[in-house]
Amino acid sequence: VAELSSKDTPISVKPDGVQRRYVGQIIQRFEKRGFKLVGLKMLQASDGLLSQHYRELVKKPFYPNLVDYMTSGPVVAMVWEGLNVVQSSRRMVGPTNPAEAPAGTVRGDLSLHVSRNVVHASDSVEGAEREIKLWFEVVEASAFFWIYVCL
Ligand code: UDP
């Protein structure tokens, strides 16, 4: 990821979206809108990463199911850049519950149930910055570790 700013936001294809072969289609929606893909990786999310990512939700009754869902396969984590990308991408993704998501939104078009809602997008600039650091700078930290070990 080149540079953090309020012009960047994380968007992830969750395990159901990967399993259902929606990665290309979801990327295409954001590219068509005019946003620029500036970071992408596929990874298996750990319980630790998820407890930080969803730190406001760890006490919720649905949290154990959420972790099972988010660890059921790989996630495609991305960073997108562009004008008002945090707000606009959230609108393109639609409400958390697909039952309330209008047609034309990712969740409204591709999902039915709140516990299988295909995609993640941040809901605030602060959240976006925190999540980009969490999902992408872990790799950089481990790279420094290996450089240290090799030296
Ligand atoms: N979720 C769920 N049941 C609920 C509420 C949320 O399974 O009743 C899951 C759902 O996958 C959602 C995620 O928890 O996307 C995070 O919830 P949040 O309220 O942060 O919604 P989001 O920001 O993803 O729209």
Automatic annotation (TrEMBL):
Catalytic activity: a 2'-deoxyribonucleoside 5'-diphosphate + ATP = a 2'-deoxyribonucleoside 5'-triphosphate + ADP
Cofactor: Mg(2+)
One example of a Gene Ontology biological process annotation: UTP biosynthetic process
Compartments (UniProt record): Cell projection, Lamellipodium; Cell projection, Ruffle; Cytoplasm; Nucleus
Cellular component aspect of the GO annotation: lamellipodium; mitochondrial intermembrane space; mitochondrial matrix; nucleus; ruffle
Family stated for the protein in its record: Belongs to the NDK family.
Function: Major role in the synthesis of nucleoside triphosphates other than ATP.
Protein name in the entry: Nucleoside diphosphate kinase
Species this protein is from: Gadus morhua
